[in-house]
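Supplementary Note 3. Input sequence used for the single-chain structure prediction.
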Amino acid sequence: MSVYTQITQDELAEFMSRFDLPPATHFEGVEAGVENTTYFVTAGREWVLQIFEEQGFDEVPFFVELNKRLGDASVPVAIPVPDHDGQRLHTFKGKPAVLFPKLVGRAPLNPNHRQRAALGTALAQMHLASAQMHDMQRDNHRWQSWWEGNQTRVQPFLSTAGRTLLADQIQDTQSWLNGQPNLPGGIIHGDLFRDNSLFDGDEIAGVIDFYNACTGYFAFDLAVTLNDWCSNEDGSLDPAAAEAMRGAYESVRPLTENEQADWNRLLQTAALRFWMLRLVALARRAEGGPDAPPHVKDPIVFERILTARRLGR
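The predicted structure, written as discrete structure tokens, is reproduced below.
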């Protein structure tokens, strides 16, 4: 979430008139994040206006439909609000836009084991629901060719040891994936970090920001989430934290034998993906231009996580 598209009170009023809602009395931009423009809007209650900066009108319907189907399957998500004509996807200043109800709760930046377990349960429920969405597909645009294509681009931001680590991990992951691992999959969230969840106490209020959702391995999605929610400062896994999340997940959707056998490879691949994401963001900012991200998260976090996973920690 961030603010690239500036709006006025009059522009917002015209947009909100499409819905059966009271007039907007307040709005403010949300600066955190890097991809889309987000505003909190007060109109009777609080709403979230999302304006898409990277995805076009050909892509956004996928996210709208995914949220609706997950909500219909009782997965805790925010469903886009329909307008007077029943449309959930809109145009704001020439860009795709949706309006969500603002969910009660806050991101658990220092989660406890009960919150980790609740998130693990919700993620498993999401995977069971998406496994039935056979007609929904979306390529993972940050997968094998993306790592290879950006490896040279990120070299200036790495130490000599970091360059070796990156090259070794890309080679190892490519070899594993080229063997076509037999793992169950479907639509995954792809980015379920702590700041993409909302909790009311220890109860999960919602999973948000599905804009990296794509077709992928379910266990990879769990690995992405676990790396963020259950890692110590030195990158190693907190065993009790990991057990709380994975145990709750498996109480709903047990991992297959192949998923268990490939588990550490999945953790490494998840760490590689987000280390590269942050390195590429650094490169984009250094290159400048209108699409340069205003915020870049520290890549060292995932360099440490990857190093720890390669050591089996």
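The two ends are 32 Å apart (CA to CA). The longest helix spans residues 263-287.
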